[in-house]
């Protein structure tokens, strides 16, 4: 229902697009669009992307894909998997022209409906944003339980950090490594229990801690960077 009008519009531009799997639009083996849906209380929100003329190296560097997923799909690299729509156009066009072509196709050549947000709309938008979406609970507190692990080498040694995070808070922290501190690292990790999983809260919890006692020469900024 949601992707077919886009596929039809692309084909009118001689881009041989097709819906594959549950949520991808591809040209051959190359992915040009990903889509997602959310349904709640009888309402559905559907949204998607269209890669038109993106800096592909930036796209690739921003993506972190499970290697097992790549292997299971027989994909050698993310770069070979994704593509810009502009690569498949018979004639060059600007992003503005592309948007107009999509709209013209979706509205089948008829008048393109447009709703311009009024001042009252913006006031309501800002109100909802402030009360709900800018809150810590919305962005972090309701996140599902997750495991975090990072191995990194600093000047003081190699650190293997493992966190158990639930409801936006650190429930357990364990740190292994070959650093040369004299204190027991579990004394420090105990201070992280039930601390909000954000940099400001962690820095506040460790403000009076001598990190060099546990890990040798290391700054608070360096330590916090290990946790994200």
SSE inventory with pairings:
Blueprint (H helix, E strand, L loop, with lengths): L3 H9 L4 E4 L3 E4 L2 E11 L2 E6 L7 H7 L4 H6 L5 H4 L13 H12 L12 H15 L2 H6 L4 E9 L2 E10 L2 E9 L7 H5 L5 E2 L2 H7 L5 H5 L4 H6 L3
Antiparallel strand pairs: 1-2, 2-3, 3-4, 5-6, 6-7, 7-8
Helix pairs in contact: 1-5
Structure write-up:
The structure is a single chain. The chain is an alpha+beta fold and 228 residues long. The chain is 36% helix and 24% strand. The strands form 2 sheets. A 4-stranded antiparallel β-sheet has the order 1-2-3-4, with helices on one face. A 4-stranded antiparallel β-sheet has the order 5-6-7-8. Strand 6 and strand 7 form a beta hairpin. Helix 1 packs across helix 5. The longest helix is centred in the middle third of the chain and has 15 residues.
Report low-confidence residues grouped into runs of 5 or more. none
Strand content: 15-25%
Widest sheet, order of strands: 1-2-3-4
**How many H/I helices?**
11
The succession of helices and strands, N to C, reads HEEEEHHHHHHEEEHEHHH
Q: Name the average pLDDT.
A: 87
Helix content: 25-40%
Rg, nearest Å = 24 Å
End-to-end CA span? 39 Å
Largest sheet: 4 strands, antiparallel
Q: Which geometry do the CA atoms define? A: elongated
Query: What structural class results from the helix and strand content?
Result: alpha+beta
